Amino acid sequence: MIQIIGTKKCKETAKAIRSCKERSIAFQFVDLSQRTLSEGEWRSLFSAYDAETLIDESSAYYIKEGYAWRSFDAAQELAEHPQLLKTPVLRYKGKVHLGYDPAILTAWGTL
Question: Thinking of the domain 2-109, which architecture would CATH place it in?
């Protein structure tokens, strides 16, 4: 089962969910506004991507809180403020992909 991590407000996350529904691919949606990620989920993300890569520099929270002008530990800030995370994050059997990609969803859905 594919895990889609994001928020209901994110258009790219909505595309990933819709794509799975249209292709009858089993998925689990994790809404970051409802639930935080576990330590294992964060480790999985950080092993696949550098923490700085996972930060959405165009997010309203990033801009509002002035992250562009301060120095910070990206991994710690992501764990404390998941609204900084680029979404969607797709996870499947230890594999992680950042962003909506219909080819990845189709490939993982047929495995």
Answer: 3-Layer(aba) Sandwich (3.40)
**Tens digits of residue pLDDT in 27-38:** 999 999 999 999
Residue 25: both structure tokens together: 């691919």
Q: In whole angstroms, what is the distance from residue 37 CA to residue 34 CA? A: 10
Contacts of 36 (CB under 8 A, 6+ apart): 82
Q: Which of 35, 38, 28 is nearest to 2 (CA)?
A: 28
Count the helices and strands in the chain (H runs, E runs): 6, 4
| Three-state secondary structure call for residue 56 | coil
pLDDT at residue 110 tops 90: no
pLDDT above 90 as % of the chain: 96
**Would you say 28 and 1 are in contact if contact means Cβ atoms under 8 Å apart?**
yes
